[in-house]
Amino acid sequence: MSLLQINAQEVLRKSHQLSFQDTALILRMTRQLANVLEASHKCARISLNGASILLGPPDCLVDYETPEFIFESKQVFLAVFEKSRLLSFALAYVDGQMKINGSLEKAVEILDLLNVQTDRPRSLSERLGSMWFQFCKAFIRRQALKFESSDHYGTSAQAYELILDSRMQYTCGRFLTDSANIEEAQVAKFAFINDLTAKHGLFLAGKDHLDIGCGWGGMISHFEEVFQTRSVGNTNSLSQLEYAKRRFGAEILYGDFSELKGVGRKFNLITIVGMIEHLTPSRRSHLLQVARSLLHDDGFIFVQCITKPAIWIGGDAYRFVQREVFPGHFLETPLETERRFRDSGFAVIEQFDHGHDYGLTTAHWVQNIQRNQLALTSIVGARQYRVYLGYLLFASRMFSTGRGSLFRYLLRKV
What is this structure's pTM? Predict the structure, then answer.
């Protein structure tokens, strides 16, 4: 399709569906977005009731990838643009009240730029709510054992089979090159752990391995098959337990990690991959205490986790994830994470900032989601499909631009 330079005022004059009042309203309400677009030399269409305007610099070029934000309700349009906040756009999108045509990646880029201008840090009430949540997790056992994100992980494994790799890894892969595919990246992550422990004198063949937060069991299956370990997993999800046993024949310990104290064996390697983010500070310390009690004195713990980036205000991206994806998840900075390791009796032997890997991992998941739209929608519904797609698109944007942080650590007892 050839590029077309379109003048917004001409489009408005040709439209018989917008009154003068509506035209003035749209131009006024979208002024902040228009300023962002002009400053970044980008353009987008805003459509209401079948008529549209083009926002952006005067020389803006439009093609089939130009994002179009479509509203069929003036009420929704007003609610979204009254705040011009990422959360308002995101909720309107997942609720089906705003549609997006054109490139979703470019739409996310535009919303990210707008978010930089309009985002707000956590309010006092949000901070107090977080403090109360942490208090309950620390002192009320029933609350401590509750897994707020259980619905997300309890979604049918058929859906995740359409999104993830063949080993069902819902955690960041290791990309040796940007051109690697998701299968290669997940295998490379396993090899990275094996090579890292071997570098420090632990050769995994014949060794005991515990994977805390093992998901659907793909990692322990690979470790047993390729590295010849005696691996066992731990999950608090009954559906994941059943899948891991059926698909991989894996040995799984079901329940909260705190119950692992009574397992009656020790391990040479304990892996905690993409799990610690679901724990509040007191629960993180408890996890590390339990892991330490299960580790041989010359053993290692490998931890992979998302951390707070250098610039973090707990803004709309975090609010959306808390509300729609991972309720109860918690982030600490790399310094806070490393201090917790030391306070729990561990030395950090190696650490790696691999945030770029997560940008690529989530981009591959997005491709799988879009490729399998019809099948996924039939399993999880249209709204949840948009939640997965929107969340992972924005995550890919954040991590690929260096504003997301993912660390890998190798720990040893001191």
Answer: 0.93
